[in-house]
Design brief:
- With 152 residues, the chain is an alpha/beta fold.
- The protein has 6 helices and 8 strands.
- It has helices spanning 23-30, 39-42, 59-63, 78-95, 129-136, 144-150; strands at residues 2-5, 34-37, 52-55, 68-71, 99-102, 113-115, 123-125, 141-143.
- Strands 2-1-5-8 form a 4-stranded parallel beta sheet. Strands 3-4 form a two-stranded antiparallel ribbon. Strands 6-7 form a two-stranded antiparallel ribbon.
- A hairpin with a 7-residue loop joins strand 6 and strand 7 (123-125).
- Helix 4 (78-95) packs across helix 5.
Length: 152
């Protein structure tokens, strides 16, 4: 079983109330070959919501207590991001997921790139909070670009 970011399957759960629909990923979900997850919604955040970025590091740093996830206005949403990551981990374990395909660049889901915490659109190498937690538990996490290139 594969788990995919809900926004990639067409659900309007992104911070700005939009999706990142990929028809190939949606077909997998519709065929029952993939299940959806949105760590930020699982963590209790509303849609739409303010954009958030990791300040002071990456997802591993957040999990270790050395960085925070902050909304543009300055509100600390670290706890919600960590809660959503653990709920996603629980789902992946319960489903015995072999791959988790998450939306690149997200502070939750980025699997190789995230925004740098300055809210200026600049990216850095690093994992989002959920990706970092899943990888710590030896669950394969890949971006939608890598998944579509390698597996479809």
């Amino acid at each position: 079983m594969i788990i995919v970011s809900a926004c990639l399957a067409g659900l309007k759960v992104r911070y700005n109330g939009t999706d990142c629909l990929d028809e190939k990923i949606k077909k997998l979900v519709d065929a029952g070959k993939a299940s959806i997850v949105c760590p930020e919604v699982l963590g209790g955040l509303q849609t739409p919501r303010e954009p958030a970025e990791i300040i002071g590091g990456n997802g591993d740093d957040v999990l270790d207590g050395n960085a925070k996830v902050i909304e543009r206005s300055g509100k600390d949403v670290t706890e919600a991001f960590i809660k959503g990551a653990y709920k996603t981990l629980e789902k992946a374990k319960n489903m015995q997921a072999t791959k988790v395909v998450l939306k690149e660049n997200s502070p939750s889901c980025g699997s190789s790139m995230i925004y740098n915490g300055e809210f200026k659109g600049l990216k850095i190498n690093g994992d989002g909070v959920t990706s970092a937690l899943l990888k710590r538990h030896n669950i394969q996490v890949i971006s939608e670009e890598a998944f579509l290139t390698l597996f479809l």
